[in-house]
Design a protein that fits this description.
By secondary structure, this protein is an alpha/beta fold. It has two domains: 163 residues, 3-Layer(aba) Sandwich (Rossmann fold); 80 residues, SIR2/SIRT2 'Small Domain'. Helix content is 36%, strand content 12%. It has ten helices and eight strands. The strands form two sheets. A six-stranded parallel sheet has the order 3-2-1-6-7-8, sandwiched between helices. Strands 4-5 form a two-stranded antiparallel ribbon. It is elongated and about 60 Å long. The N terminus is likely disordered.
């Protein structure tokens, strides 16, 4: 499908062609702004209905779950329903296309949805977990969600989480809450990619959430070229070699087309 390359200035387009052609290993690092273009609210967006009374950070901690498991579980089920009803956007599709066309592309995301995978991306590293990968709060045994697909209305009233069939503990969402450590193997793989890559695209992330935000800085320290795609200035502006202002969808689609041009 033809893309609108006019979102890139002519000199920027040529520069990107050259760095893409020379790249041995590309790291694509994505944040909430990418999924927002599929209609999934970020933590900074106002919630709806029941959830408008709560700040997301009040619900995204182990302490909040232990204090009121029904409230926290249902809020995450509400978000999971939003994800089930969303579709990958042009940015997700472009990143999957880049994986097919370039020598090596590692996708690292701060997002807990599966939109990268549904767009066709492979071996995505989810630094902050995957919402669908629920597990027991007590024994960490995995738990399989059932019955939530596109078209299902998001729940609006709190309901108790399921219980673990092994130990009877509450099932918790498969995300990394504030105050918890990132999954070790995932973080190690992402950190290694940031050390090894020679080109980074930081897309739709505020670059404020650490340790994830270290990755582009670490890549630049190790000699990689850093390109940022974001509508607004971020803390990464001074580190990036190129800052592309605008939505991720059209910009990443144009970049992906440069890979095959």
């Amino acid at each position: 499908m033809e893309r609108d390359l006019s979102v890139l200035e002519s000199h920027t387009e040529q520069w990107l062609r050259e760095v893409l052609a020379q790249a041995r290993h590309v790291l694509v690092f994505t944040g909430a702004g990418v999924s927002q273009e599929s209609g999934i609210a970020t933590f900074r967006d106002p919630s709806e209905g029941l959830w408008a009374r709560f700040h997301p950070q009040e619900l995204a901690t182990p302490e909040a779950f232990d204090r009121n498991p029904a409230l926290v579980w249902t809020w995450y089920e509400w978000r999971r329903a939003l994800i089930a009803n969303a579709e990958p956007n042009a940015a997700h599709l472009a990143i999957a296309q880049m994986q097919q066309q370039l020598r090596r592309v590692t996708v690292v995301t701060q997002n807990v949805d599966d939109l990268h995978e549904r767009a066709g991306a492979a071996q995505v590293l989810h630094l902050h977990g995957l919402l669908a990968a629920a597990r027991c709060r007590q024994c960490s045994a995995p738990w399989q969600h059932h019955g939530l697909t596109a078209g299902v209305e998001p729940p609006q009233e709190p309901r108790e989480p399921p219980r673990c069939e092994h130990c009877g503990g509450y099932i918790r969402p498969g995300v990394v809450w504030f105050g918890e450590s990132l999954p070790t193997a995932t973080w190690d793989a992402a950190a290694q990619a940031s050390t090894d890559c020679d080109l980074v695209f930081s897309v739709g992330t505020s670059s404020l959430v650490y340790p994830a935000a270290e990755l582009p800085h670490n890549a630049r320290h190790n000699g990689a070229t850093v390109v940022q795609v974001n509508p607004e200035p971020t803390a990464l502006d001074d580190t990036a070699h190129l800052n592309l202002r605008g939505k991720a969808g059209p910009i990443m689609a144009a970049i992906a087309d440069l890979c095959s041009a």
